[in-house]
Amino acid sequence: MLELGTDAPDFALPEPATGHIVARKDFAGKPLLVAFICNHCPYVIHIREAFAHLAQEYQQRGVAVVAINANDAASYPDDNPENMAAMVQAHGYAFPYLYDEPQTAAKAYKAACTPDLFLFDEQHKLFYRGQFDDSRPGNAAPVTGHDLRVALDLLLAHKYPPADQKASLGCNIKWKAGNEPDYYGA
């Protein structure tokens, strides 16, 4: 996992829904939430609607939100750029949903699964990395975004990061054969 205080790694990735290239520098001076998600993962599907609402709420409070899909679309066609663009429309994503075809951003962030969440302050120093909440497909816990919401509220109140940061849990990022990072499976 990236250490708290780490600078947000750079990225410049295409947004299939618009055809634009979106870069980290586009969010300079704003808190930044980077979410590694995809289309097909049951863990992402489980939180998808709540995440979209939470993202919109905090965007209105000045937080920039960007989602990145790094899955190997050749092996997992549900995650291809065309289906990403359809996902934006179907679920009202009000944030850029970017395609990391070379998987370089995922590696730079040390992303391991979907969803994997990274929250950075205004200087783009890592403030929180972890789960959305305790809800999982098949458990009875409600999808609230509690863990991420606590981190966002602390950040916006200029307080210290949450002491309890639980690692994300979900489907492994679908690495291209031979492209698995050195931290994969460690």
UniProtKB/TrEMBL annotation:
Coiled coil: none
Name of a matching Pfam family: AhpC-TSA
The Thioredoxin domain, residue ranges: 2-157
Gene Ontology MF term list: antioxidant activity; oxidoreductase activity
Matching SUPFAM superfamilies: Thioredoxin-like
Gene3D superfamilies: Glutaredoxin
Domain of life: Bacteria
Protein name stated in the entry: Thioredoxin family protein
Organism of derivation: Candidatus Thiothrix singaporensis
